[in-house]
Amino acid sequence: MTYTIIANPIAGKGACEAAIPRVVEFFKDAGLAFDLLRTEHPQHAVDLARRAAESGSDVVVAMGGDGTVNEVINGLMLSSGEKKPGCALGVLCVGRGNDFSYGVGIEHDLEVGCRALVERKTRSIDVGKVYVDDAPQPRYFGNGIGIGFDAVVGFVAAKMRIGGFPAYLIAALKTLFIYYQPPRVRIRFNGNDGTQLALMISVMNGRRMGGGFMMAPDALPDDGRLDLCIAGMARRLRILGLMVDFMGGKQAGKEPIRTGRTEQVLVEAEEGVLPAHADGETLCEEGKSLRAEILPNRLEVIVPWHEER
Predict the structure, then answer these.
(1) Fewer Cβ atoms within 10 Å of its own Cβ: the N or the C terminal residue of the chain?
(2) CATH of the domain at 278
(3) Is the peptide bond between 256 and the residue preceding it cis, with omega within 30 degrees of 0?
(4) Which pTM was predicted?
């Protein structure tokens, strides 16, 4: 059994680098064969994960936050031509949001995460796929896509010195007062075709974004569907109320929220542009169209073992 650990040293504002000695000690004490590779630049983990999978590594571990996990997922999918890779994905949570891990049931505790890698219990999950504008190559995602307000919040939070949910909450409040006029978009899914002003569109495989905003509280990462949460235009005070609802996952059924489930969705800007991210990684700042779909049963992920009760 061979492991490749891909660590992002700057994840969690340096928390990843500080945790590396503990992880190395654990793997050595457990007698596991492993390579530890540090990323050196954006998208480096994509290449490292692809090479690890192609060279026969049994488990490729993303050690970082959601961005690191996203890059590793992209590398694994590229290694297999969108088929299920022959290796499993492991995650050691040392990032800020850890939303992917929350959605699939991975513990955020580092020691628990290391033990899970030894026990190697896996679950099969779906992977999302998105095309931006006329790009010939797609991007893959494990947790979700944010379009509009949510994306701008992420851009603002990334520039802040603090991390975790507080950074996203403060960024959301700042964005509330600087966000431009939401775009008029055309949204097509499940035979529905409508145009509206959209403050935010979440396309989810997981449940949470920003470390604490429950965009799709009932989403399952293995049901073969994407969960949609579409927020229309509202006054600032109403948006503040919606932020509280999102933190509790209680926004469904309230104006101006629309939800749905689908296997694919197309979002086009008829007026304005589409800032968007996938798993916290920037997709575009001024896109005109995004087309997303779900790839069912596409990745084995290591999760902690829990005794049945």
Answers:
(1) C
(2) 2.60.200.40
(3) yes
(4) 0.93
